[in-house]
Design a protein that fits this description.
The protein is mainly beta and about 280 residues long. It has two helices and 24 strands.
Amino acid sequence: MTAETRYAASPAEVLSWNTAQTRKELLIEQLFVQDEIKLVYSHYDRFVTGGIFPVGKTLTLTPPDQFKAAYFLERRELGIINVGGAGVVKVDGETFEIGFKEALYVGKGKKELLFSSKDNSAPAKFYLNSTPAHHEYPTRHVSRKDAEVVTLGAMETANHRTINKLLVSTVLPTCQLQMGMTELKPGSVWNTMPAHTHDRRMEVYFYFEVPQGQSVCHFWGQPQETRHIWMQNEQAVISPPWSIHSGAGTSNYTFIWGMAGENLDYGDMDVCAIPDLK
C-alpha cells in the first residue's frame, strides 16, 4: 500500500501555479495498480481518495502512517464504489458482494477490511473515499435501485445527465461523507453546469468510462479566476472548497463525486451564472 499526502492551498497561492504545479497538487493520475492499494491523503477536510485493484490476491486495507491509528476506521468512515468487475468486500467477517457501479458504506469502528474479485479475469476496481467520523453508523450495500436518481440538463445545452445519489443523507446516515455518480448521455459533455462553489465542503471528482483517445477538461478555481486540468480515464482531481468544479469532455463519460465538510445538504451550493465565469 502507498499513501501520498497533498496539502491545502489558498486562492492567492494558486495564482502562481503553472500547469505542472497544478497537476502535482490536485491531479491523482493513477489509482489502480494490479494487486495494490493506492491512497491520497488531502489536508482539505482530511479527505482520503483511493483505489484498490485485487487481481491475484485478497487485499487488506490498513491505516497509513498519516492516520496514527490502530486500524483504518478507528476514527473514520468509508465509501466504496466498484468501477470494475464483480467484487467482494469483507467487513469484520461479514461478506458483501459489490457489482459494477454499486456502493458500500462502512461506518466508524469496523476493524478488518478485505477486498477481492469474484473473477480474476474480470477484476473489481474499488474506488474509495474516506473522511473523519464522530459516530458509528451501520455498514450498508447500496445498489443502483437503492440510489436516489435525478435526471438534469438537456441535449440542447450538452449537459443531459443522470445523477445517482448513492451514499447521501437521503439514502442512508453518514457523518459527513457524501458520494454519488453522474452519467452523461451520448452527445452531452458538460457536467455540473452552471458551475458552483460550496465553501462548507470540499469535493473530489473521479472520471471514468472516458473512451480511448478522448479526454475530459476539468475546470477549477474561483469563479472569476478559473483554471483547467486535462484528465484521462480513471483519474481523480481534488477540488478545494473555494473552487468551482466542472468538466467538459470530448465525449460523454461518467464521474464519481465525493464530498466532505460540515454540511450534508446536497443542494447547498453557491451557483455561478455562466456569463459571469472568467
